[in-house]
Prior knowledge:
The chain is α/β, with parallel strands linked by helices. It folds into two domains: 2-237 and 432-446, Rossmann fold; 257-426, Rossmann fold, CATH 3.40.50.2000. It has helices at 18-32, 99-116, 132-140, 160-167, 187-194, 203-208, 219-227, 257-271, 291-301, 315-324, 338-347, 363-369, 380-385, 399-410, 414-426, 432-446, and strands spanning 2-6, 36-42, 53-58, 68-76, 79-85, 123-127, 144-149, 157-159, 180-181, 184-186, 197-200, 231-233, 278-282, 306-311, 330-334, 350-353, 373-377, 392-394. The strands form three sheets. Strands 3-4-5-2-1-6-7-11-12 form a nine-stranded mixed sheet, sandwiched between helices. The chain has a six-stranded parallel sheet with strand order 15-14-13-16-17-18, with helices on both faces. Strand 17 (373-377), helix 13 (380-385) and strand 18 form a beta-alpha-beta unit. Helix 3 (132-140) packs parallel to helix 5 and helix 8 (257-271) packs across helix 11. The longest helix is centred in the first third of the chain and has 18 residues, at 99-116. The radius of gyration is 22 Å and the shape is globular. The N and C termini lie close together (8 Å). This is Glycogen synthase.
Amino acid sequence: MHVVHVASEVFPYSRSGGLGDVLGALPAEQARAGAEVTVVSPWYATLSGTVPEVWRGELSELPRDVSEVRVAEERRDGVRYVFIGLAPFDRPGLYHEDDVYRFSMFGRAVLPVLARLGLRPTILHGHDWQAALVVALASLAQLRTVFTIHNLQYQGKWNMHEGRAWTALPHHAYGIDGLEYYGEVNLMKGGLNFAHQVTTVSPTYAQEITTLQYGEGLEGLLTRLSIEGRLSGIINGLDQERWNPRTDPDIPAFSDLKGKQAATTALRQEFGLDEAPILATVSRLAEQKGMDILIEALPELVKDWNVVVLGGGDPLLTAALVGWAQHPRVAFAQGMNEPLSHRIYAGAHAFAMPSRFEPCGLSQMIAMRYGTLPVVRETGGLVDTVPHDVGFHFREAAPSALASACDAALNTPPADWARRTEQAMSLDFSWSGPAQQYLKLYGRTTGH
């Protein structure tokens, strides 16, 4: 079986969040399981000179002003990585305001580039709206396809006139059973309609998105896919080498509770914290992640906790945390800093995730692997990954609910806390199980 993954980012070449992490780990695990695996992603400006170029030419399938294509390729961990370079991607950063145009051009280039390289997939697996056009084109070309929703909130919508010109699909593809969404082009909807199977990154999120609350306007279509047996959820895994407290070079390595104390002491010293327990979060600063809920809960939390936050994003949330960082029990590090994130995961006692919705979430898995107990809102992948006898759950997306759950954590007897911590560190979040589930889904989809 030849699996071709198409995604807008893949760690360690490009990454803005969990999508890059998934593409950095799942393909390698599938290769270890015996599949032939190729990953196709844009050749961003930051990759220039780091990956060998293997082909350069023009593609007649693209508009003349972007028809020149450069292709780079590298093999690692048994996976073939193919990067497609186009003029719209020759700029700093991964994402921009004209991304519907940029990823339409990328989507139209993928199948012709695969053909030039002599690659024909058994199955094409597209990830999120940036790969949705590739899924539609592959399905129309009689290839079998799987489309994974990593976050339904982002859909790739644009006006119909320009969207049709950019995507260049057959006329029938722009109807209500294709890309049309209230008079606009919606790439996510196109991926959902044309894919042979649709997955999300957790079983609970697969159920939630069929409801009005979480369906982002596509709940009717998703309900139909669920009824037809075309929608399912497969929980993400965690890179066991990258996130391993026993071998992590960024922390005082540990394998038990006693060893974890050294990481906690180091984190206290780094941020000048007192002896109160440490509640931490590493997150995008966004309302989806409930960071406004955490900030509003700080007056209660700082009575009993030190609070450490690492993240960047919303300017208003950032400004609020900058202000709170003047408090002796609040530490805020702005932006993303991977070595620091390792130190925070390892040194904190508890980890807050008050998400309004969470398709899967990796932070809670990382926290548990490092013996840090999650305090999570009951939604999406947080339900599927945090056992009630390990972490602390709350239902309402409100500061008082988060504070109450943190109180429950604070009042947990030491013996029970130790048991929870040891159990957390023993949980299996490896990619081997999810990789096998995807391979079985591919088999059912292709008849192999």
